[in-house]
Amino acid sequence: MDYYCSAKFTELQINVQGRLLYNCCKAYPERISVEWMEANPGRLFHTDTMLEDRALMLDNKPCASCHHGCYKYELQGLQSKRLLTKNKQQISNPDAPLKTLQIILSTDCNLACIYCSPQLSSTWVNEIEKHGSYTLNGQSIENDSWTTMWSRMKQKSRSTESKFFDLILNEIHLAKELNHIAFLGGEPLLNNQLIQSMDHVSDKTISITTGLGVSDTRLKSILEKVKGKKIKFNISAESTGKYFEFIRYGLRWSDLQNRIEMISKAGHEVKLLSVLSNLSLLDIHNFYKIYNERYPIEIQYLAGRNFLLPHVMDDKSKKACRENLAPLEDLAIPLLNSIKEDPTDHDRNNLASYLTQLASRRKLPIDFLPKHFLDWAGIDTTKIS
User: Fold this and answer.
1) How far is CA 300 from the centre of its chain?
2) With a threshold of 0.85, does the pTM exceed it?
């Protein structure tokens, strides 16, 4: 197995809220302190852990931080982001300069997407506080003390104008070859410091990854404030109608369509980020027909919810997917490859438990899903209250 990944040599993700560093978006994080940053200016992208990981890769050895996000899926014969973005040009210098920085300003978010978590969405935190943890076979989805405390704090009291964020801005100025900064969430468009943060990095290319879980009024205000700037909006969506509203809970399908138009008409670049799961795979062909000719669509693979992986579905659903996806040309190849594996009973049972709990808590109908899929999973829609 070739363990090398160029992303480890060029990318860094910072979670401001948790003070976490991710040496590529799928890597296991390391926590960083203000004291360390003050004592080591210019080394945020070259911590001891990062340098050790890169040295291992150059020796073609696995590094632990990449196991949960990529290696374990590859060992199961599944795709990973590492394989999908593999760069043939190998970087041989562990001290290579940072090129791309992703900043998670906070986890404030009005949406509770089915593959998200309380660690990434405040709406998930609130739901679990109200209804309790999701209990599945071998895992649970629950709040931790840090996310609960953070969700209760007002934005003003945890402003990005903190010492930690000032140190991050200093690191950005020291990273001379850094050319792209991406703002993530949560929902970055909800963060009151987004515009100010972008002003600090106006000499870089800027992107915002958003689920568009904001009002039309707020989006219009933001678009006015960034007038004249060229920003790439990476919009998370992968399905239509009832599928979209179930998967991207908290946003209406018609509102998503309207807000994409607002951004496009304002002159900004739009790319669609489509997370591949068993539920989205049932409808992604309809989404593709609407948007493929207008905007690029990037397929993303989820991690941490094995029961939502694309292959966890019945044979009849897989057959329908093959028929629906066949006309999609290049996009069809990775999608069809993703359903080749046979699902385990463990994942099928967890899928049924998760969807039943989720639909009951959110008072959502689930009978729009194919009956053969529901029957195979063992979901009795009459018992969802």
Assistant:
1) 8
2) yes
